[in-house]
Request: fold
Amino acid sequence: MTAQEIIIRPLVTEKSNMAMAEGKYTFEVHKDASKTEIKKAVEQLFNVKVVAVNTVSMPGKMKRMGVHSGKTPDWKKAIVKIDTNPSDAEYLDKGGKKVTSGKKYNTEIEDFNPQV
Reply:
């Protein structure tokens, strides 16, 4: 699956808007996607450093229209915590020399709010 197939859409609710201050973003994701696939997709699409991914499988609801009843499809929700203060990664090279990786990450997701 590609990153665009994994991340279906952002979920914008009152609760998710309050969590954005802590660096937590909520997405509707593909039902078969794993936490590592979701992490890689968010990092690739939004150029952020993901710290943690929590997932919830949401069951569909029973709906009625007149005498006909049916069920909405099951779906999966992912709450992704990003690093709001990314620092340079330091590690030792083969010769014992300290090397710094200065990869630039965004501290927030700018295009999170969809067009309503």
